[in-house]
Amino acid sequence: MQDLSLEIQFERVALDFSIQGRNKKRILFINFVIYKDLRVEQNLQTNCISLFYRFSTGRMGEVKVIGSSGSVFCTRVEWALKLKGVAYEYIQENLLNKSELLINSNPVHKKVPVLLHDDKPIVESLVILEYIDETWKGYSLLPQDPHERATARFWAKFVDETCVIGSWQAMQAEGEAKARAIESVQELFAFIEKQIQGKKFFGGEQIGYLDLVMGWKCHWLSAMEEVGQMKLLDQEKFPSLHQWAENFKQNPIIHEIMPPQENLVNYFQGGLNYLRSLATNKG
Amino acid sequence: MAENDVKLLGSWPSTFVMRPRIALNIKSVDYDFLEEQIASKGELLLKSNPVYKKIPVLIHYGKPICESLIIVQYIDEYWSSGPSIFPSDPCDRAIARFWACYIDDKWFPLLRRLVVAQGDDAIKAALYPVVEGLVLLEDAFKNCSKGNKFFGGDKIGYVDIALGCFLGWMSVTEKMNNIKLLDEAKIPRLYKWAGDFCADSAVKDVMPETDKLAEAAKALLPKIRADASS
Prior knowledge:
heterodimer; A: alpha+beta; 9 strands; 48% helix; globular; B: alpha+beta; 4-stranded mixed beta sheet; 9 helices
């Protein structure tokens, strides 16, 4: 139950329960009262008052995430769980030597991320996000309106199928091919710029499903730009998208799990070097 | 004109267009079917789907929804009082979404490669992975159907719609190339499911007859081949 806890030390305990608690009890040296999702504990020995707020309602169960650090698809799952206030165990996977747990949980694709909820595997990051939203109530990831939900799903699919791959290709390309690839990606970004104009987040006033999917535009895209020696998210061309990225990064939950850009630079540089060495060996 | 202003931009031979048509039938929703010409894209299509310029597009009260599976989910959520296309349990819903993703992202490209293949060697090479995928889907059917007629249980659901729309073209491909995709010996459950799916009241009026589709295929294949190689 406890997700957010605050302990306050008082010199003298003179606690006035102003909350009309339904359950007032005394256990040993602890007075506590429970009112809806708030529980207030007064410890008479330590003069300490603790507030516990149940951040989300819904089936908790045992939750694990099998992931790989630096993977944007895994990070978006962690962001979703944190926004929902769901506690989970993170299991780091070595993708060069895949574990039996991963292979058994995702026998079709053998990929991360995998969400294990009471040992039941859910795979594919967008499928996992919808599962998290449906299972744990409270904070909403997807909008309520069916048309807005369809719009969010459409742009999520668009980003995953075109922008991420396009940026990776632009990162690898050289010379004229690079210039053409950059132009292609910026045409894709122009569609998304229109979607965020006039809004703080794609989800409106709070971060939602589409923001989590777009999250790769922060450190991951910056890392690709650095490694590929290119500028894709040009602030002048895409002012709204640029501002969105700043707003997004500032959220404490997002910030807490965002991998450092230097790590991603190393990851992408390593990937690029490997691909170039393959090309050299072939030719 | 449909009472609640539902239009569907599509084309009768298209597998992806069939998906929202089946979903609208399940929900007993009347709609105007606006046939798009394959050779040239109409203004309404270009305006409604500027990103991909592809069918199907559902236009509901003037608002476009694109991508066939997203349209099916929209139909299920908007007309929520009708028979459900998705299961109610979140875990079953996730499994349904997973298999629909698999069908579109992994299996359909293999099927398309088979449909456009020319020459015995190319056809044979393209056939094996498609059948392998169907064997995997046979296993998925066993787990999802829980002994019932469809992936969705006793009625057609999301995965049935996602896979079933390809049955017409699979039949045409089998006849054109003298091969077997729905082999009763290899995939008995899917073989039976195919018959049940095509006979369902929500499907039978939108599933094209094999002969009619085969005739249309002769004209469509050059364009499909060109698109596949680009």
